Every structure is written in C-alpha cells, then in structure tokens.
Amino acid sequence: MLCPMAAGGFDEALRSWVAGDPERALALCETMPVQEAASTRAVLLRARALLRLRRPRESIALVESLDLQLESAAERATAAMLLGTAYARSGDVERGLAVLRDAAALAVRVDVAIGSEIALGIALAHYQRRDFDAAARALDGVDPTSGIVYARALECRGWIAKSKNDFAAAVAAFEASLAQVERSGQSDRFLEANLIATMSYIAVELLDVPRCEALLERARRVQWESSGLEYYRFWLEMNRSMADEIAGRPREALQAARNAALYAPSDAFRLFAQCRRAAVLFSYGEMLGFADLAGSISADFASIDLRLLHEFEEINLPVVVAETLALIGDGAGAAAALRRLDTMSPAQLALLHDEPMKRAYFAFVEGLVDDANKEPLRARHRYREALREFDAIGMTRRALLAALRLNALHADDALLAFIREQALALPAGSWIREKSARLSAWNSDPMLAQLTRAEREVLELLYEGKSTAEIAAVRTRSTQTIRNTVSKLLQTFAVDNRQALLNECARRGAFPTATS
Questions:
Q1: Which of 150, 235, 297, 383 is 20 to 30 Å from 71 at the Cα level?
Q2: CATH, domain 424-507, list 1.10.10.10, 3.40.50.12160, 3.30.70.60, 2.60.40.1270
Q3: What pLDDT is recorded for position 512?
Q4: Do 41 and 61 form a contact (C-beta atoms < 8 A)?
Q5: How many CB atoms lie within 10 A of CB 215?
C-alpha cells in the first residue's frame, strides 16, 4: 500500500503515478535525496512504475532489496503483491502464483485495496496459464470500489470472454472498464489505449462500422505521443485501415496502413503494415501496385529471423505473408512462406493453433495457397472449414472473406445468400458490397454463370480498362494466354470486338455497382 503523501519529491512522484505518468514517477523517485529514495514507500512506488512500464525483472530486484526493511503488514503484503505479479509477468507464472497466494494471506489483516490488487494479480497469472475459469474466480475478489484496479479487473474479464469467442460479453466488459477508468480519478494510458485498440478490432471483425468509427473518434482523447504506446497505436491504425477498407475508403485505408508502419515496434510489425497496404490495393483492384508491393514484402520477409519472434502477433507473420503472396497468384512463394514455420519452436507453433479463430485463419490461408497452386479441391475444403469456424465464433468479416473465395470455386445459393446478407450491412462504396452485387448478377444470368473464374477475372480487368499486357502482368500469365481467353469470351457472347463484349456483358448486368 502507498503511504499518505508527504512533502518533497515523493509527494510529486505519487501525484505523477496517480495522473498516469509512470515514467515521471520513476524519474522523480530516482532523483530524490538518497535517504528518501531508499525509503520503503519510494522503493515500492519505483517497483510499481517499473512493473507498469513492462520492466518486471527490475521490479523484482527492487522489491527483493527491501526484504529486511518491511515492518508493517501493509508493506509486506504490497511488496509480496508486486513481487508475485512481477514473477508472473517475467514468465515464472507458478512462482508468481505462490508468492501472490502468500500475499493474499497477509492482506486479510490490511485494507481492501491491497487485497483487490492481489486478487487481480492472481487472476492475470491464471490468464497467462490460459486457465480462464480460475482467472474469473480470482476476479471475484476485486472490490468494485477499488478504482483503477477494478477497471483492470473488468478488462481482464473482457479478455477472458474474447478468448472464449464471446465477443458481446468482451465488448461489454471492455466498455465497462473504460467507463470505470473515467470514474476512478486515476489515469492509466496503457489501459485506455489497449481497450480502444481491442474494441475497434472486434468492431471491424463484426462488421460493426458505426461502433468502430465511434471508437476511432474516442481514440482522439488518448495521448498517443506518450512513450510506451507505440504497440497500441500500431494496432489502432491497422484497425482503422481495415475499417476504412470495408467502408469504401481505400485512400484513407492506405494512409492508415502507412501510419501503422510508422508506429511499428519491430521489423515484423512493419511487414504486417506492408501486408495491410497490399490487402487494400488488392481489394480495390490496384493489381499492379499490389504485385509490386508483394514483391517487396517477399524480399523483406526473407531477412527476418523467425526464431526471434514472440507472441502470436509476430509469430503469425509467415501466415500473413503467405496470404499476401497467394492473393497475387504466387503459389510457390506462398508455400515457401508457410514452410518457414518449420524453423520455429514447438512453443511458438502452439500459439498459432491455441484458439478457434487462429485455427480458422490458418485453414483460410492454406486454402489460398492451395488455390494459388491450382489445387481447387483442397482449396474448397480449406475455405469451407474456415467459413464454418469463423461463422461459429461470430467473426463476420473473416467468414465473409472465406465465403467469397469459396464462391469463386463453387457457387451455390446458400453461399450467395450469406454473402448478400452480410454485405448489406456495409456502406455502398465497400468493395465487399460491390462484389456481392456483382456475384448476384453473374449467377443469375446463364451465360455469365457458365464462365470460368479465369474468364471472369479477365472480363473484369477488361472492364477496368486494362490492356492485354497489363492483364497478363496482373494475372502472372503470358500475353498469348490472355489473348486466347479474350477470344473465347468473344465467341461465347457472339461478338466481334472487346467493346462489344463489354457492352453485351454490361447489358446482362455483369458490372453492377453496390448501389444499383
């Protein structure tokens, strides 16, 4: 427990901590007169600040230096709470839990605030072990009057719900946490930034564009220039890019992806931002730009040592790169990207499959790679598996993407109905909604419905005004192959030239917009 404020350096350091500035609190503690800096209260505040700044090993060293100086039960309970939490965050979860349980026994004799912090520490340690039920039980020990600690407990409940794919419960808990932050009188920029970034991601995946835009507006109140927020700013800009993409704002989506690259905390994250830019270019038909960027991504990916990656976001890099290369039709490059997973450790690989969402995404990318390598039966199986998993857990955006790919290989009425239903929730300029409108038209006309996917793609590129050479570059085929496809299309529709072909297909409704 922190002691009451006193005059001097500690007083100002404590005010900085409450205001949500752990860096300044730490700096003030370290520049106090030697005797004051060595006091128990100053050392405990420094340990708190280090822990909040994700420097748990330094926090452990500080708390252990207090071993013989702790006199009151409150000080011993606080030190044990900080030590146990730091052990857990540094990776020694079992040791951390043991220390936290001892701290809980001490806390019975002191105030509720310390007991709430200990309960939160125990819950977070169980969460690290992925024992979500034990984590939820531990959170019951956090008192609702414990201010910012209760806000963090609500956040943890949100993460538990998200891990169980209960997105409605997750959003409710995260929103309650954000409201509690604003009521508590204590600032925590890390918590606020994490909540907004996470909720905007969920809103994008649920195709809830209004909620996402409201959260992105709320994000303006976060002091993103503060140190330590680069990771959250990166994901916020990635989410902003996805939201702009599905809402029909490709220029804004590209700019947000560029912003994400600026805030990327590592080379792996910077490559994620490049893949996001590529996804926008692909979605809106800028295939030459997409092909150029995909080549750059492939080259940059080759220089990354995958053994150094950690956490799911970074470990997922080969899968995201494989997705990007498969979309351009580089089946060999996409397959090679997936093969690089073989260089990872079992612990790293386990993070790729420990949740239904991750398994579904992996199946989807495997489908893309099979598709690019001309293995349609395997691709159909993977797409169907991904669609089923995404739909079951409520990840609407990803389910829709899987449905679009599956429909291109094997259209049926149920798939088209699913695509139309989900696409109607999107703004008129969205490429997904325009694609849905086009699919409906193409599958309702017998002549259009009989075209192969390659013929449809060439026809769409002709409609976009691309030349034979440009279409060949986009589709990575020879110009003669494209000429042969165009000749077959002319024969199919009994017309003499390309303009007549486009006119006839337009008459049949081949090129509707989302608003038509």
A1: 150
A2: 1.10.10.10
A3: 64
A4: no
A5: 28
Q: What is the mean pLDDT of each run of 10 residues along the chain (516 residues)?
A: 50 87 88 84 90 91 78 84 92 93 80 88 94 96 93 97 92 96 87 95 93 92 84 95 94 96 94 96 84 90 90 90 92 95 90 89 97 93 96 94 90 88 89 85 80 83 85 82 91 90 84 52
CA-CA distance, 513 to 283, in Å (whole number)?
15
Amino acid at 495: V
Domain ranges of the chain: 277-352, 353-410, 424-507
Cα distance between residue 474 and residue 392, in whole Å: 35
At 440, phi and psi to the nearest 5? -60, -45
Can you give the three-state secondary structure of 115-184, one letter per residue? Answer: HHHHHHHHHHHHHHCCCHHHHHHHHCCCCCCCCHHHHHHHHHHHHHHHHCCCHHHHHHHHHHHHHHHHHH
HEC assignment per residue over 420-432: HHHHCCCCCCCHH
Instruction: Give pTM, 2 decimals.
Output: 0.83
Per DSSP, 390 falls in state H
Residue 201: CB partners within 8 Å, gap ≥ 6? Answer: 235, 239
For the record, the structure tokens of 504 come out as 């006839």
